[in-house]
Design goal:
By secondary structure, this protein is an alpha/beta fold. The chain has a 5-stranded mixed β-sheet with strand order 1-4-5-3-2, with helices on both faces. A hairpin with a 3-residue loop joins β2 and β3. The chain is globular. The termini are far apart.
Length: 152
């Protein structure tokens, strides 16, 4: 199976659908060209672990794709598999089963996420960032302002 190599290809697939599983997230995009082969890209972020763990996750995901074979993968489609740490401890048969069950739903454009980043968290302030509470960078400005109002 062919692999995605360029950043632009990964970004194009990110605009398509998305399916979340225990050990990975799967992004998919159906291509409109005449090439019937499918392509897969693998990515594991640095926050997942050190280089050894990330490479083990990537190898397990590649082996799962090889186990599936080309006949089970939808034709003329691009997929990006975003590995998670659970891929290290999940039994290989479950990993393959999750991958097979997620391929077709990942091509559905209705499951796409917005490109602007994380989903807003409930009750975490305006921006959904739990680390920016009253001790944020602008907190001292509001303290001065409220202190002046309370004096007068």
């Amino acid at each position: 199976m062919k692999t995605l190599k360029k950043r632009s290809e990964f970004l194009a697939v990110a605009t398509g659908g998305r399916t979340d599983r225990r050990a990975f997230a799967l992004q998919g995009l159906a291509r409109s060209d005449e090439d019937p082969s499918s392509r897969v890209g693998y990515t594991v972020t640095k926050k997942t672990g050190n280089a050894v763990e990330r490479n083990r996750i990537r190898r397990r995901l590649r082996a799962a794709i090889a186990q599936i074979g080309d006949d089970s993968i939808p034709p003329s489609a691009d997929f990006v598999i975003i590995g998670r740490r659970a891929a290290l401890s999940l039994p290989f048969t479950d990993l393959v089963r999750d991958l097979i069950s997620g391929l077709r739903p990942a091509l559905d454009p209705k499951t796409a996420r917005p490109r602007h980043g994380r989903r807003p968290a409930a009750g975490k302030g305006r921006q959904g960032n739990p680390g920016r509470g009253p001790s944020g960078p602008d907190h001292h400005k509001t303290d001065k302002h409220t202190a002046e109002q309370n004096k007068g």
